[in-house]
Structures are given as structure tokens and as C-alpha cells.
């Protein structure tokens, strides 16, 4: 029996052990390892940085940046506490979609223009309350100081920043406190796909239609954060040259994003999320395309060389101080700028996941220095009487709560999709083909220039992309260097025979059924496609490899002919390959990405509808072939 068991194990393991294509391994998920390997020169980093920022802009639905609609900000209901005041705020990040929060100001400001600190709050919301017993436990372990204000640490943070002379804005994450147009359940606890929102019309968030337009909770939250900076900058008493950002946990994620995507913050303190391990478990912290071949540490590095602090705790950040796990690599990057003192990560691993008083004290000192507040050190947090529910509430009879729910969700998606269609139309009409090309390179995850730099090894049966660890089975004709024309045939095609025909077997081309996904049981595309290329994208990668190899052999004319089922791959690869493809023939040109209603469809490609679907690509190819 034992030998039979060993035989069966080997039978199942042998294909895996001897597989050479790296893509045959299990898909990466948010609990993987995400190292940051800083480049040797600033020139190399700046090149990498441009690609990373573009990926983050695309993944959040912000490439190109949408037009900014009027904020129509309302500030009301001032409350006084010793040393600071609190006011209620709401404004529109897009028409009819509200950001809510509390604005903390110094009670007696000593100058006309004050520094400002934006505070994305993370999970637990601004109403997070340890309770009377809970805060005592925090005091016992040294995590908090006060029985009153220590109960609500996010509020305590903003109160102290105001007492330090800053204007602090604590705004609600989608689904928390007064931000309820999209529910907490939808934004943070989405688990199972909703058939009524998975149609080609009247679709909602998390649907294949939304993902292929790059509309997500993560993207909406990031846009809200950018508009929150706009709100702060619009205040007459804010010094726009002294704005900082800090948040913990999910708020740390938003702090990382703002540091990468917006030039206005001059100092940052993303706490509790800079890690080479777990990247953020919530649907609000993930988006398709976001962390493919990158992670939170490298995304944090995009803020360099500006001052940036964080702490390591007894959570997924516990190994940050270990070489190869995050902070030493951030220091190495800052050293390239000769600014190694501009990044810190104190060891607070005796505390669990937190943004407690000890962590906040480090942040206060950091901002005191880099916002040039001029306060004597140490900056000490003081107690205050907590706000009541009525004092917290943004909405009341004079400021009624806006409508939300399922119908509102659909209407918001229609509004944003229409906005982006108009944006893409203007982009294509302006003749800015470069931006559209960059967008498609990003959603596919590879440019043709990248492919031409790869190292290939070819036999008659297989093309090996040694740089990427990818294998493509094919039938290679002999003497291709002397060929005037070679035709790449995909699938079944009537004219697919002859000495000049190549038949590459694209990545997992013959697999049937839905595409693979990570083990996470929640039915959200971002958990898989935020860390892994789609099957469709990988098939395009194979085509680009084939074209790049043939191009390197000086084949004069390369054409693609596709049978049914691979027309889209042929069109996308031909568009990306530019002048290297002289002709594309497809059996049918009827398919569009807009038909897909399941993110596990083999042809699913995040972003494909937003950037013009196949209509834009076909039009671009037609123009190119006419000109040639």
C-alpha cells in the first residue's frame, strides 16, 4: 500500500516538478511575498517609477485623470473643545457622490495660513470606540494614555494635530459613519456575486462590466482621497505647500496611494500597511491590475525622497526591519537620493496591529519636523471630552442624508462609465495615440518593446522566453531567416497550412471552463487579477514573444490569421506589436469584451471596455494598414 501511495503521489507531482513555465504555478494572492529590490541607480528607478505610477493610475480608474467637478463643499455645526474646534463637512467627489467627515482646526491659530494633515481612517471608522473596559486594557499595555479620548484613537489623532497648529480632516471611508450611499456590506464585506448586477446593462460594482471599466470601491476611495486633498487646498486658511497625509491600516493603504499618485503631500506616515507580506485583505484595498509584479513596499517607495514614516508591529509588518523584507530596501532607495534620514520605521513589535498613542507620538514628532511646526519636543497628546453622537453627525434635518442603495449604485456606475467614455473619445479624437497605447500595454501587462528585450531560445517544437520563464509550443518552419513572409495561425483556420505557417499553442489555449482564481472564497476579481495576469493577457504575451522572436530574425513580413475564439488575442497583439505586423485576418470580428458577464470568462481582461474595446483597436489597425 505504501509503495502504491508513493507512486500515486509521484504521478500527480511529476508534471508540476518538471514544468518549466512559471505560469503553471498557483496564482499569487494577497498573502504572498512581495519583495522590493531597489535598483542600482536613480535613472533605473525613475524608469521603473513611471511604469508603476501608470499601473496604479490605470488600476484605480484614474488614467487619464478624470475632470474634477465642483466640490460644492458645505461646512457646518462648529463644536468647541479646549485647544481645537470640530466642524462637519460634506462635498461631492463626483456629482451626487458625497465625501463626509470632520474638520479639526486650532482654537486660536497663530498664523493666517496653516499646515494641513489629511487623515484617511481605515477600518473601524471614525466611530471606532474601545469602550470603557477596552480602553483600560489599552492603558495597561501602554498603548493609550487616557480613559476618555483614548477610547477613540482616530479622533484623538486629529484633535492633537489641531492642537499642534494643523488643520486636520478626518474623512469617512465608503460605507462608514455618514458615508452610506454605498453600504458597508457592499464596500467591505462583499462575498458573493449578485446576478442582478451582472448584466451587460444596469450592472453594478464587482461585476465583470465594472472590472473591465476599472470601476471599483478601491478606485472610488482613491478618488475620494484626491478630492479630499482638493477640499483641504481650497480652504482659505490652509497653506497648500504644507500638506501631509497619515492613516493606519486601510487608511495606511490610502496614504500609500496618495503618496504615489498626488504630488501635493510633502510628508507622509502610512502606518500598519507597509509590508512585503499581507497586502490588505479587504475588497476596499484591492483592485484588478494593482499589484501585478509589485507590492506595498515598492508602492510606498514612490513617495521618495520626500519624508515618510511608519512603524513595525506584531502583525504583517513585523519583519519590516529584516533585510529583504522592506525597510532596509526603502533606506537603500532613499540613499540613492542622499536622503536616508527621510524614512523611518521604529520597532514597535511589542504591540499588535495598531495606530496607538505610541505610534501617534512618533508621527507627531515627524510632522512637527517636516511641516516645520516649531514645537518643543516631545509633543505630548492630551485628553479631551469625546464628541457625542449628535456632535459627530454630518447629516441632520438641515443637511439631509443623500439617497443610496442598489438603484443609486447602478446610476453612479452609469455616470462614471459615461464620464470615461467621453474622456476616451476626447483622447482618441485629439490624436493622442501614445496614451491609449500605454493604457493597453498596462492592462495587458507587457509592451512589444519589453518583449523585444527578452532572451529567447527556439527549437522546432518550442519557443522559450528565458527572461520571463515562459514556454510556447509551436511548429517552426526551417530556414525562417530566409523567409520573406511568415504567417502566425491561431486556432482552426482554413488557410493555416504551408511552409510559411507557424501554429503557436498559446498559454493554456485548450483549457475549457472558467479561468483559475486564488483560494479566497470571496467572489471578487481583484483578489485574483490584482496580483496575476489574466489568461487572456498571458495568451497575448505568448503572441508578443512569437512576434518579437520572428522580428529578431529579420523576417520581412509577419501576418496573423485567427480562427474562431482567438480573434481578440490576434487583434490586441497586432495593435501592441505596431509595424511588425503587416496584416491581420480573423474568421469573425463580432466579439466584443462588452459581451462578458463573468470575470472567470477566458477572454476577461480588466480595463478592456474602458479603453475602447476591440472597436478602437480595429480602427487603429485599419488606419495603420491603410497608411502602409
Write a structural description.
This protein is an alpha/beta fold and 628 residues long. The strands form 4 sheets. Strands 1-2-3-5-4-6-7 form a 7-stranded mixed β-sheet, sandwiched between helices. The protein has a 4-stranded parallel β-sheet with strand order 14-13-15-16, with helices on one face. α2 crosses α14, α17 crosses α18 and α18 crosses α19. It is built from 19 helices and 16 strands. 35% of the residues lie in helices and 14% in strands.
Fill in the keyword field for this structure.
alpha/beta; 628 residues; 4-stranded parallel beta sheet; elongated; disordered N terminus; 7-stranded mixed beta sheet
In short:
The protein is an alpha/beta fold and 628 residues long. The chain has 19 helices and 16 strands. The longest helix is centred in the middle third of the chain and has 24 residues, at 406-429.
Q: What is the count of DSSP helices, taking H or I runs of 4+ residues?
A: 19
Percent of residues in helices comes to 25-40%
Radius of gyration: 27 Å
Shape: elongated
Q: Oligomerization state of this entry?
A: single chain
In spatial order, strands of the major sheet run 1-2-3-5-4-6-7
Amino acid at each position: 500500500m505504501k509503495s502504491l501511495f508513493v507512486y500515486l503521489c509521484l504521478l500527480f507531482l511529476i508534471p508540476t516538478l518538471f514544468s518549466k513555465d512559471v505560469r503553471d504555478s498557483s496564482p499569487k494572492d494577497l498573502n504572498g511575498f512581495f519583495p522590493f529590490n531597489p535598483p542600482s541607480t536613480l535613472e533605473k528607478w525613475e524608469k521603473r517609477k513611471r511604469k508603476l505610477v501608470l499601473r496604479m493610475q490605470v488600476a484605480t480608474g484614474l488614467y487619464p485623470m478624470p475632470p474634477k467637478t465642483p466640490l460644492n463643499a458645505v461646512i457646518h455645526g462648529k463644536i468647541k473643545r479646549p485647544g481645537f474646534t470640530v466642524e462637519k463637512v460634506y462635498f461631492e467627489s463626483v456629482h451626487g457622490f458625497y465625501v463626509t467627515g470632520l474638520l479639526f482646526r486650532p482654537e486660536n491659530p497663530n498664523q493666517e495660513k496653516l499646515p494641513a494633515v489629511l487623515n484617511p481612517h481605515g477600518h473601524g471608522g471614525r466611530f471606532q470606540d474601545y469602550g470603557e473596559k477596552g480602553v483600560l486594557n489599552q492603558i495597561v499595555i501602554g498603548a493609550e494614555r487616557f480613559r476618555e479620548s483614548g477610547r477613540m484613537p482616530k479622533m484623538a489623532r486629529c484633535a492633537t494635530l489641531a492642537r499642534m497648529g494643523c488643520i486636520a480632516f478626518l474623512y469617512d471611508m465608503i460605507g462608514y459613519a455618514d458615508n452610506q450611499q454605498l453600504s458597508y456590506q457592499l464596500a467591505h464585506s462583499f462575498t458573493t456575486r449578485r446576478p442582478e448586477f451582472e448584466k451587460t446593462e444596469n450592472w453594478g460594482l464587482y461585476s465583470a462590466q465594472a472590472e473591465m471599466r476599472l470601476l471599483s470601491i478601491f478606485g472610488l476611495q482613491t478618488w475620494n482621497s484626491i478630492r479630499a486633498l482638493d477640499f483641504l487646498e481650497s480652504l482659505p486658511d490652509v497653506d497648500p505647500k504644507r500638506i501631509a497625509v497619515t492613516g493606519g491600516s486601510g487608511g495606511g493603504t490610502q496614504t500609500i496611494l496618495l503618496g504615489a499618485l498626488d504630488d501635493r503631500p510633502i510628508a507622509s506616515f502610512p502606518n500598519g500597511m507597509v509590508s512585503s507580506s499581507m497586502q490588505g485583505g479587504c475588497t476596499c484595498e484591492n483592485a484588478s491590475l494593482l499589484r501585478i509584479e509589485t507590492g506595498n513596499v515598492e508602492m510606498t517607495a514612490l513617495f521618495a525622497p520626500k519624508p515618510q514614516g511608519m512603524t513595525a508591529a506584531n502583525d504583517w509588518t513585523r519583519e519590516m526591519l529584516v533585510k529583504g523584507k522592506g525597510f532596509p530596501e526603502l533606506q537603500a532607495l532613499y540613499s540613492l537620493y542622499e536622503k536616508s534620514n527621510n524614512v523611518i520605521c521604529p520597532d514597535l513589535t511589542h504591540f499588535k496591529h495598531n495606530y496607538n498613542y505610541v505610534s501617534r507620538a512618533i508621527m507627531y514628532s515627524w510632522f512637527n519636523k517636516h511641516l516645520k511646526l516649531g514645537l518643543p519636543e516631545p509633543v505630548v497628546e492630551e485628553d479631551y471630552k469625546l464628541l457625542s453622537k449628535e456632535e459627530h453627525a454630518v447629516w441632520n434635518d438641515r443637511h439631509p442624508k443623500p439617497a443610496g442603495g442598489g438603484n443609486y449604485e447602478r446610476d453612479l456606475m452609469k455616470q462614471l462609465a459615461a464620464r470615461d467614455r467621453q474622456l476616451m473619445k476626447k483622447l482618441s479624437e485629439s490624436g493622442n495615440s501614445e496614451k491609449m497605447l500605454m493604457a493597453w500595454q498596462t492592462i495587458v501587462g507587457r509592451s512589444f518593446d519589453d518583449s523585444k528585450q527578452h532572451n529567447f531560445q527556439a527549437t522546432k517544437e518550442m519557443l522559450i522566453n528565458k527572461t520571463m520563464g515562459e514556454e510556447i509550443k509551436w511548429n517552426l518552419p526551417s530556414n525562417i531567416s530566409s523567409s520573406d513572409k511568415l504567417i502566425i495561425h491561431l486556432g482552426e483556420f482554413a488557410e493555416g497550412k504551408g511552409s510559411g505557417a507557424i501554429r503557436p499553442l498559446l498559454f493554456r489555449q485548450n483549457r475549457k471552463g472558467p479561468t483559475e482564481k486564488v483560494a479566497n472564497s470571496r467572489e471578487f476579481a481583484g483578489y485574483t487579477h490584482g496580483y496575476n495576469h489574466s489568461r487572456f493577457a498571458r495568451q497575448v504575451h505568448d503572441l508578443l514573444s512569437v512576434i518579437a522572436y520572428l522580428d529578431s530574425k529579420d523576417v520581412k513580413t509577419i501576418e496573423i490569421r485567427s480562427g474562431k475564439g482567438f480573434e481578440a488575442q490576434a487583434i490586441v497583439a497586432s495593435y501592441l506589436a505596431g509595424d511588425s505586423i503587416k496584416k491581420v485576418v480573423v474568421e469573425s470580428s463580432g466579439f466584443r469584451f462588452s459581451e462578458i458577464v463573468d470575470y472567470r470568462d477566458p477572454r476577461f481582461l480588466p480595463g478592456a471596455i474602458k479603453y475602447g474595446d476591440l472597436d478602437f483597436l480595429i480602427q487603429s489597425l485599419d488606419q495603420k494598414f491603410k497608411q502602409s
